[in-house]
Amino acid sequence: MKKSITVNTHEAYFNTLQEAAPYVRNHNAALFVIHIPIDCCHDTVLESIVKEIKIIHRFGSRLLVVHGSSFDAVAHVPKKNIERYQRESRDVRYRIEKYLGDEYSVINGTATVSCKPVGVVEGIEHRYQGTILIRSPDLLKQSARKSVLLYSPIASYQSNQLVLNSYQVAVDFATALSAKKLILYSSKRSLFSAQLSSQVTVHEISSWLKVRIKNYKNLSSIIEQAIYGNVKRVHLVNGLRSNGLLTELYTKSGSGVLIRKGAHHSIRRATKQDISSIKWLLMNPNTKNYFLKRTDAYLEKNYNRFLVAISEGALVGTCEIILFRTSHMAELGAVCVQQEFANKGIVKMLINRAENELVALGYHTVFVLTTKAEDFFTRLGYRRTGFESLPLVRQKKYDRKRNSIILIKKFE
Fold it and tell me: Which of 34, 133, 206, 362 has a CA that sits 20 to 30 A from residue 212's CA?
């Protein structure tokens, strides 16, 4: 029994590393801005978050961390509260520094970043509230190659101390430095409910927040500023979940909410490097598929038959093209998509690409065998046909026990 448990543990460990590898490569040298709100700055939660940050930094990503303060929840700061925000900021920064060890640099001085008062807004003077001025983005990027950069939301201006909105600071850094990702930790459980998809557009998240989250405009505004300011992706990560950020960034399923400007997926031919990802997708119980599994030997020999769908650098869908040259027909097989990417048009993109390639090769008849997806293929122009319509070679391999429906489509 012990031997079996050990083998299974090693296999799970290997599979985890295998799944994470393409994400580690993809995120190497990428700049991420990470915001940790004040409600995630309690000792046990903060220590867990910083441990993840250290791992991601060691994977080769460049990181700039902004921590929050209780000021983020108020609209106006009286002078008497400045000292309290200072103490709070010093305390949080000290604990982050302690957990980071030697792997950080504090952003201060006027060489790279300075600040100024917000001034008068809608007739109200915000004398003790500030906004940052990023003077040297390139210098900050260079510094981030060596260590994690840490910024606290309180700064000096002339003889005054200014309190900064940490969310606004984070998005200002992300847009000025053209960060690949803005990562927003949160302890709000409602953000990670099953009602919200793991991948949404900025329009979808704004609409969802409006209905379900109190004071949604602040968070919605930060997300929109980042996305429309050319930050490629915004991630909402559950700060109360163990290893939430690592799971979100380095696994196919993720653990939080990924937000993009609009849906973006690409289709290409598979390469030998895709074999392990194709195998994982075809064997994953959460994959939406309608086909017989392919063996390792089959994939090694025939990987170049596959089209693959790529999203966020990850392989999320497949479609195999099998040519029958004698009868001048083609079969589409292994049509599948990862469950969380279902109903996003990816399967249709794969099939359209396959059909276009077939037409270019001079093939004008394509067929599929399915037990569950007849309605879907019918909407794409496929029609039921009989067993005798299959190429003779395919008729010999047809498994009557599966009772697959044969659908055919002819091109002009």
Answer: 34
Write out the DSSP string of 90-103. HHHHHHHHHHHTTS
What are 162's strand-pairing partners?
155
To the nearest whole percent, how much of the chain has pLDDT over 90?
46
Question: Which amino acid is located at 88 in the chain?
Answer: E
Collapsed DSSP state (helix, strand, coil) of residue 71: helix
CA distances from 216 to 129, 137, 199, 205 (A): 22, 30, 19, 10
Q: Report the b/e string of 316-337 with b at 16+ CB within 10 A.
A: bbbbbbbebeeeebbbbbbbbb
In angstroms, the CA 173 to CA 140 distance is 10
**pLDDT computed for residue 340 by the predictor:** 75
Dump strand ranges (E) for 286-364: 287-289, 306-311, 314-324, 329-338
> Mean pLDDT across the stretch 377-402?
90
Q: Quick check: 142 and 105 in contact, CB under 8 A?
A: no
83-115 pLDDT, tens per residue?
889 899 999 999 999 999 876 777 754 567 888
Strands (E), 98-252: 104-106, 113-121, 124-134, 148-151, 154-157, 160-164, 181-186, 199-201, 233-238
Tokens linked to 276: 């392990």
User: Residue 358 to residues 161, 235, 320, 354, 381: CA-CA distances in angstroms?
Assistant: 67, 39, 12, 6, 16
Decide the pairing of beta strands 266-269 and 257-260.
Answer: unpaired
Residue 309 DSSP SS3 = strand
Overall size of the chain counted in residues: 412
pLDDT of residue 2: 43
Give the tens place of pLDDT for each residue, 162-213: 899 999 999 999 999 999 999 999 998 888 876 677 888 888 888 888 777 6
Count other Cβ atoms within 10 Å, centred on residue 43. Answer: 9
| Residue 4 to residue 313: CA distance in whole angstroms | 34
pLDDT of the residue at 173? 95
Task: Assign 299 to helix, strand or coil.
Answer: helix
